[in-house]
Design brief:
single chain; alpha/beta; TIM Barrel; 9-stranded parallel beta sheet; 37% helix; binds zinc ion
Length: 249
């Protein structure tokens, strides 16, 4: 079992007095469902703070009510309506420049306003672009629209706004569209265990199968309380004085 790779990587960090930060981003949340309950329950059992990327156009009071009993959960802005505006030959994107920039900016402003109204203290003003894609012109405008951070997938790049990305995706989007091989996921996570690093784990609760649920249970239980890592909320990580050390390099 390659979860041993992760345990060894964390043991090594801990034995040198180091630590890696982990954070959990779950996308496409709209409303309370059994799938959401299962996901939040798994995280809560190990006291792991989750950040939900919520689709503003399609969500409402029901989700806000459901999250009242989840003190460890943050809400972020997942675009506006998660609609693809790209031509057929181009990868899906909502936040490209396929529409006038003012229209896209209006969507982003409306999304932040709606989720702030619904979620108040739970709202963290980070933008999570649908399909993890956003045009560079829009990134520059995010601070002016009220966003203090951007989260996509892959290594962080220098940007006009602080980036806090995800790096390990539990879903096999191009194959089964179910859970990826846990062996690969543990190996990927282990390889990212660098002193002072941050690893974002990306989930999509609406499409989790038993493979994902089992992987998350194993990941959560072996990392919770391990001295080589700590699960933190997106807000806590971004509030760290040392963050974003890597992005300045
Ligand atoms: Zn999405």
């Amino acid at each position: 079992m390659t979860e041993r790779l992760l345990i060894e990587a964390l043991d090594k960090l801990a034995s040198n007095g180091n630590c890696v930060d982990l954070w959990l981003r779950d996308d496409d949340c709209i409303e309370p469902t059994e799938a959401l309950d299962a996901f939040l329950g798994a995280a809560a059992r190990q006291k792991i703070p989750a950040t939900l990327a919520v689709i503003p156009a399609h969500t409402g009071e029901a989700l806000a009510k459901r999250l009242e009993s989840e003190p460890g959960v943050l809400v972020t802005v997942h675009g506006w309506s998660h609609e693809n505006h790209a031509p057929a030959s181009v990868k899906k994107r909502e936040l490209g420049l396929d529409r006038p920039v003012e229209v896209v900016e209006g969507n982003l402003r409306a999304g932040l306003e709606k989720l702030t109204r619904l979620h108040e203290v739970r709202l963290f003003p980070m933008l999570v672009p649908p399909w993890n894609r956003i045009d560079a012109t829009l990134i520059e405008r995010l601070p002016g629209l009220g966003f203090n951070a951007l989260s996509t997938f892959g290594p962080e790049k220098p940007a006009a706004v602080t980036m806090l990305n995800t790096h390990v995706d539990v879903i096999d989007w191009h194959g089964t569209r179910g859970g990826r091989d846990p062996e690969l996921l543990f190996a990927e996570t282990a390889a990212l265990c660098l002193p002072g690093g941050v690893i974002g784990v990306l989930t999509h609760h609406l499409v989790h199968d038993d493979v994902v649920a089992d992987f998350l249970d194993r990941l959560f239980s072996l990392t919770a309380g391990h001295p080589g890592c700590r699960w933190r909320s997106a807000a806590d990580i971004l509030a760290s004085p040392a963050f974003p050390a890597d992005q300045e390099a």
